[in-house]
Amino acid sequence: MNDRPAVAIQGLTKQFKAGVTALSGIDLEVQPREFVSLIGPSGCGKSTLLRIIGDLIEPSAGAVEVNGKTAHRARLDHDYGIVFQEAVLYDWRTVSKNIALPLELLRWSKEKRAARVNELLGLVELEGFEDHHPWQLSGGMQQRVAIARALSFDPALLLMDEPFGALDEMTRERLNLELLRIWEASGSTIVFVTHSIPEAVFLSTRVVVMSARPGRVSAVVDVDLPYPRTARTREEPRFFELVTEVRERLAGGEVAA
Amino acid sequence: MTATLQQRAIDWGPAVLVFVLGIVAWQGLVVAFDVKDFLLPKPTQIAQTLWDERSSLWHAGIYTFKEALGGFALGSSLGILSALLFANFRWLGTAFMPFAVAANAVPIIAFAPIFNDWFGLLNPFSKMAIAAVLCFFPVLINTLRGLTSVDPRAIELMRSYAAGNVSIFRRVRIPASLPHMFAGLKIASVLSMIGAIVGEYFGGPTTALGVTILNASAYSNFTLAWAGIVLASAFGILFYGAVAAAERLATSWDPSHRDFQTE
Questions:
Q1: How many angstroms separate the CA atoms of A146 and A224, rounded?
Q2: Where does chain A show beta strands of DSSP type E?
Q3: Can you tell me the ipTM of this complex?
Q4: How far apart are CA B15 and CA B27, in angstroms?
Q5: What tens digit of pLDDT does each residue of B222-243 get?
Q6: Alpha carbon of A144: minimum distance to chain B alpha carbons (Å)
Q7: Would you call B174 helix, strand, or coil by DSSP?
Q8: Contacting residues of A for B154, CB less than 8 Å apart
Q9: Of A100, A123, A128, nearest to A178 (Cα)?
Q10: How far apart are CA B141 and CA B101, in angstroms?
Q11: Whether the predicted model's global pTM rises above the 0.80 cut
């Protein structure tokens, strides 16, 4: 399983009923343990692509394989942890019970669930908040609960749709660092949708640049900044070069030599 | 604890004051303008009658409340059950909801004499049936709205955990629908009491509250009629309060109740 790509997409096309072509001829491979960001203008279909990978919507044509299986099989095998822009927590459940929900569905015993929830509360630094209800938490804390919930069952693939898009810049940068720490600790593969060029460069091993109408992959930028990345990384000349490269790719131009 | 009690007192203070002032004004105006009893009795007279007739009124009240409760239980359960079916099988909803909405516009009270014929004038079930039909629609419509207006991403997340339909209903749709469902149940609690009383106006045993009110006004015993109305209102308000209390217990997580939570 480990030598297979985590995600393999070939000739993927998605047309919606209204005749809109959201995605056209997408080919993309993501290797295990990679952190790949999808970036592009609004309407380029990056969220649609993420949903297709996660078997939440069906492609019109083309094939998606996840860990060597169909996306459908992968979903039934609990290969996906999904995080949206809003935390989408279940209001009637406490923080602990939100995190434990996927584990309940996997029929973990109560003791095993409690132990795992404790571990995750530590990982996302929310100890002491286990009995709070979602509305009692700030936006950043809610999003950390959503991440803990997605990680709870150790999914092979994390799909994140602008998870920090609704947060202020300070919180976003702190959560970026936390996410990298979590990614390195958990050993999972991440496909991450974002609008922010610096965020994409800071987090990713590769940045996939998309263009709109129809959504296509227009460039792939390898990010050769070493891990572990820290707040300092954002100040390195290479970071700025890569941000510039992604920006120019997005604008559709050639990269200056 | 004392702090919350104090807060409650402050919250309820204005309403209690308005109530007391209203009663005092009623009494004062009736005395000042020498209003005849058959037009409007004095609150003190009504209170006196409530006390004097407490035994028969209480039994009548309980009798009628049982009809209301039975109708509420029946109508609300059917409403919730139908909402669950319509939410799960969309084609059922598409086929039946237009009729449910149309039927909701029918003045159901008009069927009261018919129900009395069907189920028997003295059979409490004829009143329960009216109350049940009255309760059915608000509970159905509100619960269905709650079950179907769940954040689609909350459902997507459940699907990503490979959750089945039953699990999605149990863990997401049903809990998310509770605030809506209780809105329907609160309306139904009041309607059930109205249904039972009005049903009794078209005939019922003399032990029923509606019949007591009807007979009292027919025999010009207006203070007794008013005492019956006050008791019927008290049952209605208490029933509503009980449903509202159940709501607060069942949906204490709801952000709209945050004033009632500690912290």
A1: 29
A2: 7-15, 21-30, 35-39, 61-66, 69-70, 80-83, 157-161, 189-194, 206-211, 216-222
A3: 0.85
A4: 19
A5: 899 999 999 999 999 999 999 9
A6: 16
A7: helix
A8: 88, 90
A9: A123
A10: 8
A11: yes
